Amino acid sequence: MRAETLEILCSPVERAPLQFESRPAINGDATQFLVNREHGLEFPIRDGIPIFVEPHAITGINSRFRRIYDSWAPFYDLLSKVGLFILGVSEHKLRREFIEKLEITNGGRVLSTSVGTGSDLSVIPRSCKYYGLDLSAGMLRVCQNRVERLGTLAELFLGQAEHLPFKDETFEVVYQMGGINFFNDQGQAIREMVRVAKNGSKIVIMDETEKVARALENIPGINAWFRHHRRPIIPPTALIPAGMEEVESCELYDGQAWFVSFRKPR
Ligand SMILES: C[S@@+](CC[C@H](N)C(=O)[O-])C[C@H]1O[C@@H](n2cnc3c(N)ncnc32)[C@H](O)[C@@H]1O
Hints:
Structural class: alpha/beta
Oligomer: single chain
Strand content: 15-25%
CATH superfamily: Vaccinia Virus protein VP39
CATH topology: Rossmann fold
Bound molecules: S-adenosylmethionine
């Protein structure tokens, strides 16, 4: 972890500042930690990734999707490429068009609040400082391999989008592509995006529409994801905090994805 990264981190619930601590391994566990002794907080860093939430503390739909994405992680890239191909969408084109909407600046900090396997990294300008958070350790492992393969400087974190481990007004760009349809609390995740974005920043969110979710429900293997009642998919425009500017909402790719963007006031 870069030294400057420590300056932007805080504990995800108390928002307490953190310090780096290194100590000998006990029972093969982590040797490096982010700590706040005053609040009695300790977050291990495993394989270079700070762990801001342990599996037993994840509840509700987040817990179900953590397990699903952990087990699908090795196949996720292939599945999403094939899935998008069947829907008639080129993955590279989709990601390039999406990233173009983000207003990434040279040296600016960019945060993805569900980075997954880091497929966006192939189209993210190298001149930015990239940070990716996800609640699936499996997805982050694949992402970390990609980061090493590409030789980029992305930093990864295990946590929940509803409780971001970052200080207020840290990022020039905050985005979420895929996942938010099934977060425990979409409103809380959006409020967190706004909190960590700098004033004047653009916040962009995209996920599949109800039409695509219904099609997925009929595919053997994937239908298990939806076995327990799921809420209908509605673009979360009603959850955007009051006062946000330039609110845009539309459907893309022949109604297969919804897209929402807005700007935090200066
Ligand atoms: C459909 S994948 C999208 C991954 C990536 N953004 C992409 O475009 O390929 C959804 C991701 O959201 C993550 N996720 C689900 N719920 C989450 C939550 N509450 N907080 C953070 N990540 C979450 C999953 O682990 C998974 O990696």
